[in-house]
User: What shape does this take?
Amino acid sequence: MPSVSESPSFGQDSHRPIASNSRVTSSPYKRTFGAAWKEPVPSCAGTAQADAQPSAPPKTPRPEKATVQKHSEYFFPDGNVVVQVEDVQYNLHRSLLAMHSPVFRELFTLPQPPGSTEGCSQNHPIVLSGIRAMDFTRFLWLLYPPTLGSCKVTTVDEWLSVMDQADRWQMDGLRALATAQLRALYIEPIRKVLIWHRYNLPPHELISSYMDLISRPQSLSLGEAQDLGLPLFVKIAHARDLAHAKGACRCCSCSKVPGATSAGKDRILEEIIRVVIGISLS
Assistant: This one.
């Protein structure tokens, strides 16, 4: 029977005693099994890894809540309905809103749950979402004129605000007023086409704008093409080609066509618009 020192598995050094206060720097098992041997992980290392926690991400400061404020002009002391748009509150008159708008009329007649105080105080206003405070204020310019018969709305942007409010609150008379004022103001041709399409206004009122677009010397820009959209841009580009071919555009070479009068060019342009754009004078 072989002795321990003659064991073929562990070698001669495997049976030597190890001092209790010495540190093992190389395992005999590693020398025997070679690369296949993996050092055992000390239990304290495993505990340290388990205890390690990922650091929390820095907290993003929350944006400060906008301070709600009374409107300086349209928070009436005798108002009986508090309305809030964005961070602005208005104290208005139910009877006046209901008189002109079927939307407000229905809103004020809806049955409310017992104890409801919505619209009765600043702490419980009726919140109107989806609109800007400036647009609602411009609407109130007309509902509460500073002097009888006066109107503070003058620019295209202001009348477009009024048009949006007229559609939102279903006020046909106000829409007609805004439309009439927009007709009286000069609006750049591209923008006028976009406005008339947006609000479904009579297309024949765009004849002069289309005439300017298809006869002007400069071609449509990329931004204008994006605003118009591909279908309408293609039609206008085709109409411009026809106007150039027929000598009706305003570029230098075409203006020298013999016998081409201003009235004659206008008739050519109107016919092109009728055929290509699909709009006639009537």
In short: Residues 223 and 229 are 10 Å apart (CA to CA). The two ends are 123 Å apart (CA to CA). Confidence is low (pLDDT under 50) at residues 1-25, 29-33, 43-48. The longest strand covers residues 69-75.
